[in-house]
Amino acid sequence: MKKLILGSASLVLGALAVTACADGEDEASVAGNGEVNIYSSRHYDTDLALYEDFTEQTGITVNRIEADADALIERIESEGEFSPADLLITVDAGRLWRAEEAGILSAVQSDVLTERLPDHLRHPDGLWFGLSTRARVIIYNKDAGEPEGLETYADLADPAYRGDICIRSSSNIYNISLLSALIAHDGVESAEEWASGVVANFARDPQGNDTAQIESVAAGECRIAVVNSYYLARFAGGDEEQRAIFDKLGVIFPDQDGRGTHINLSGAGVTMNAPNRENAIAFLEYLTSESAQRYFADGNNEYPAVAGLEANSAVEQLGEFKADTLNAAEIGRNQAQAVQVFDRAGWN
Ligand SMILES: [Fe+2]
Q: 341 burial class (0-12, 13-18, 19+ CB within 10 angstroms)?
């Protein structure tokens, strides 16, 4: 297996392109069943185990390039019809939507994928497929007392929580996707009212990532915060120090009596000019097998996308919940509008 890091390393990428073009036919005979070129913005060791296992099962060599999602999307765009990329793997519905908008993904029809993945976790036309999910949850400082009546995202805008809320900046894609979901459900006006209400409740100007919000709530600097479940699970399943931080927190899965908690996903789509399209589809199908789902979800403490599979023990400590089944494509579609709403609401 070849690992290629993208970044300033356009030279390395060039090497992959040459390999794919010059050795195309030879590679197939060397590897047995050819290869698949994966462009991924996920960087987890468990993903490596997956690639190796796939090669063992199928004889298909996995080549991968890692970079952040936007860089990979731009790369595939600029490589155009000569792009060696077969499969783009990334996190967040917003990024999958950017890839869709850039026109670099191609529709896949697969009975295996249709059967294994619930409707809301795959693109309606098969442009991408969700592979794992994470929930955007509310946490609070237990010592400061349970925030009574805080049960929904809408409640975060309640003046009862003035000066209580910490959350990261509006440029962050997790917040953009959350607001996109609220726009899809309640309309843009209601979403703007909500955003303004939350801004009025800020304990401080948005700063830091989700992990920083968790630490701030545990330290008592903020009473309430909004964070992704996998960061919490990291603390829940971490060392003694992390565990002590987790123990200071209460977790609320919003909207359990209504539409369910907002979830987001990791997903993958086959590229428009994939030179190894069949292998890419085989790899996607492999990723929805039970053992692969286990690895894929555990790599980042996420929930498996395939129904009926349980999360790992650290994630299970957060509790069970009902997820919002809004299609992730809908979340993608509202991203631009969400950014404008955040702007108007003065959410930095
Ligand atoms: Fe993250």
A: buried
For residue 130, the CA-to-ligand 1 centroid distance in Å is 16
User: What whole-number distance in Å separates Cα of residue 78 and Cα of residue 67?
Assistant: 15
Query: How many Å lie between the centroid of ligand 1 and the Cα of residue 209?
Result: 8
**At residue 28, does pLDDT exceed 60?**
no
Span from the CA of 195 to the centroid of ligand 1 (angstroms): 21
Q: What is the pLDDT of residue 3?
A: 52
Are 212 and 301 members of one domain?
no
215-245 pLDDT, tens digit per residue, is 999 999 999 999 999 999 999 999 999 999 9
Taking the CA atoms of 187, 192, 193 and 198 in sequence, report the sign of the dihedral they define.
positive
CA 84 to centroid of ligand 1, rounded, Å = 27
Residues 8 and 111 in one domain: yes
Assigned domain for 315 exists: no
CA of 59 to the centre of ligand 1 (A): 32
Whether residue 106 sits in one domain with residue 231: no
